[in-house]
Amino acid sequence: MADIYTSKKDEEIISRVLKKGLDIESSGNKWKILRIALAKSLQIDTEPDDSLDKVSGEGKKEYNLQQVTGKGKDNDLKTQDWDTACRAMLSIYHTQDLFSDEVSYRKFLQRHIRRGLREIDISWKSESDFHAWLTHEFFSNLQSVPAVVTEYQDQLVAACSEIGIHAEMRTEATGPRLTRYKMYLPDINELDRLKRGGLEKLANLLGVQQQGIVQEETNEPKTIYLDIPRPRDSWTHTSGKELRQWVETFLPDTYKLPTWIGTDVVGQPYFFDLSDAPHLFVAGTTGSGKSICLHAIIISLLQRMTKTPQKIQFALIDPKEVEFSVYDSLSNLFMNKVFGDNDAEIIKLLRTLTDEMNRRNDWFKNIGATNIDEAIRKGKDIPRIVVVIEELADLFMRSKDIQDGIIRLAQKARSSGIHLVLATQRPDSQIFSGLLRSNIPSRIALSVQKYTESKIILDDVGAEKLLGHGDMLIKLSSESAPKRVHGVFVHRDDSIQAVKHFMNSQKK
Ligand SMILES: Nc1ncnc2c1ncn2[C@@H]1O[C@H](COP(=O)(O)OP(=O)(O)O)[C@@H](O)[C@H]1O
Ligand SMILES: [Mg+2]
Hints:
alpha/beta, Threonyl-tRNA Synthetase, Chain A, domain 2, Rossmann fold, 3 domains, 9-stranded mixed sheet, 4-stranded antiparallel sheet, 43% helix, globular, binds adenosine-5'-diphosphate, binds magnesium ion
């Protein structure tokens, strides 16, 4: 009996890393990759899912503990027996004594290794240097944060004075990615100089990265915040597990569609009611964190439904069919499936949603209600429907019917409790056109290349200065100023857990 199994796909990942990453031909070194995968998975604080237990079909491979943890090996440093260490780590991770439970130990080991392989596959691209990737993933967090705080404060004051701004340091707060300095300017007229080119000069003088420094208002006179990005090695992330805990802890009962996105710049949880939005536009370049942001929205709503009886349905459209497949077993999917790249089906979905919208509006009229809230108060039990579209530009390019259908919903669906969340990597005026703009006042901008793109998304500049990796500006209505938020870093297992948790709660 082998101890651990891998699938054909897992084996492909292993051999890609061996050949392209480590330049090793011999398969005798596979254990190295398995151990890296184990370490990678242990970085995620959501437990790996039990769907990783089953390995069937062709190309399946098996390993024994000796190969994976070195169990029973001699004292040669490279191959020695790390089994006790692995067992101890997993026991702590799973809060379970795995020294006395052999079956669970092997099971967990397999889950972690297979999840780790999947994570490597997602985050390491063959063309980039594998050793650099390894260093970044495993060692960068260990480097220390620039510690000599007061020295930096002095430097900042000195740099201000160098560009002709007299500033006094007040307080400092360390956020997840930025340090926020509160500064007092005796001559507030000097703020103009700071705004017109001064921030870039400061960034240069302090040697911070190109995106540089952002200035924010405070509510005290003559006082400003300067938000200065720290090196990426010192960032902290909010995990999907924390997101789920927030939903338990901070859930405001009055929110109809509570949506957790991340933290503000000083690390406070940031959430809003999507039903107030009432539609949301999410845009940013490829790799800026849009999909992860959509998952965070879906997970918060799923988690909410496990706590309160309120009904929410999802209509999910994922033209590339990569992101939303984790949700296809949900029992609350509108038309019972996740929609992929089939145009005819998407058109049918949009028609059905429009029919539903019209039907609801007729009902409301009959009972003397003007919107879903009034209808619910009058005793109608109707679910809100959240429509999430993963790549709007793709759909718009493909079919005029689809485009018209989405615009029609954006114009009229809000009062009937149908809310759109539209994501795109192409923030241009063709995609986010007049009709959509005027009907979707709530926007999330992730990082973009150019300030003109930021203007299209937010009617405001700023997104071109974001740091990527789920750093975003959120504007919830046309009047409010954009708010900086660092997104929750959710993984696939967070979606899997949220689905499971939701499905179990529905059985009760
Ligand atoms: N909130 C976040 N925190 C940390 N890293 C993130 C976050 N969001 C995204 N990333 C990083 O950026 C990568 C791309 O994210 P993704 O959501 O797939 O981008 P997009 O959908 O915009 O192309 C992720 O694999 C992850 O490494
Ligand atoms: Mg994406």
